[in-house]
Amino acid sequence: MQKGKIYRSLALACMLSALGACRLPALATRTENKNVPVAYSSPQDTSNTAHISWKDYFADPYLSALIDTALSRNQELNITLQEIEIARNEVRARKGEYLPFVGLQAGAGMDKVARYTNIGAMEANAEIKPGKEMPEPLGDFALAARASWEVDIWHKLRNAKKAAVNRYLASVEGRNFVVTNLVAEVADNYYELLVLDNELDIVLKNIDVLNNALRIVKLEKEAAKVTELAVRKFEAEVLRTQSLQYGIQQQITETENRINFLLGRYPQHIQRSSVSFGDIVPKAVSAGIPSQLLTNRPDIRRAEQELAAAKLDVKVAKARFYPSLGISAAVGYRAFNPTYLVDPASLLYSLAGDLMAPLVNRNAIKATYYTANAKQVQAVYNYERTILNGYVEVANQLSRISNLARTYDMRSQQVQALTRSIDISTDLFRSARADYMEVLMTQRDALEARFELIETKKQQLNAMVSIYKALGGGWNR
């Protein structure tokens, strides 16, 4: 009768726990929006430059060699690889949590019971047959296998393992995102180096032209056609142009060192193409359709995996409101003398189960539940923001490529016109029909125009790199 009351009390307690768990706190939820525009600015076909390997996209063999070295030696990338390993181990740990824990236990001890205690008094008053007394002090030796297992009724542990898997996949996508950025950064700096080489070449040629002009002005002064002021002006212009040479040389050194840093090595000379920078033609780009960003861009894929993990975290936190069932078991031998451990009479075994549910003071569980939900909503916004950012980056680069192509054509014509103006101004100066200041200003304008033309070409190549990165190219070899 007493046992029946106990069972009914336990059943009632479990029912109350389950009912309490059913009254879950209300949450403000949000569902992610994956919709993107059908096209960018005009209808596009499905061919996408992101599907091209970086080895094919960047045809320069020197640049390909640099990228290949960076992908094997860059420290940031290698740090990311260790983060992937950490995430993989987390999956293993989560998987082990919903499997039974089995361990082997061996123990030895000694116990001397005090005479004037309840146990000591009972032993003294017990009628023990001669030769059957327990030894004093009393030994305790055990050898047993023990197992414990939390039955995953509500898939709390399985969902935690799935969340760990999603975070592992997110770390893989994080590595891919690092690769994409690394490829783009090496390419940008390589093209920057080619630009500086070209600018240095232009400055050196311009110094030669100015020195020739200076010799002419000196001859004109000797013929009393110009004053000392003209000579000093030309000398100042030569010195100004020579100062540009050393500034460019410093930029070359810094750019080479920046590339070496990306390659994970100490400063050394960077081999590069000797092809004229003006002859480099940016690759034609196919942007495909915006929906392809969801599968091409590693940062969007990473945000998607992080969102999936956050959703599972909410389920794990929710399961903590429900009763948990634990099972424990043990089998082995125990005796007060080691020689009795092999005796069948020393065999012990146990099997127990317990059902536990939170009933009073569930604030900690509620806080975890609210936090998991807030992180899920946060992950939704981050996912939507990443998609939006990807679309905007592609749209901006497409517009940039188009406008830079027109700008380059205009500046090419400007350079051609100013180059002709140099010869004209020099001839007019020799015939005393032009002032020396006109010659100087024409030289300066032509130099600046050439620099602007090179800068525009660099921007075109940077846009070619940026659109490849924005579309999600570079991580898939």
From TrEMBL:
Residues 1-28 form the signal peptide. Its main location: membrane. It is found in: Cell membrane. PROSITE patterns: PROKAR_LIPOPROTEIN. The keyword Signal applies. SUPFAM superfamilies: Outer membrane efflux proteins (OEP). Transmembrane segments: none annotated. Keywords: Coiled coil, Lipoprotein, Membrane, Palmitate, Signal, Transmembrane, Transmembrane beta strand. It comes from the Bacteria. It holds the Pfam family OEP. The keyword Magnesium does not apply. Residues 67-94, 437-464 form a coiled coil. It is a lipid-anchor. Belongs to the outer membrane factor (OMF) (TC 1.B.17) family. This is TolC family protein.
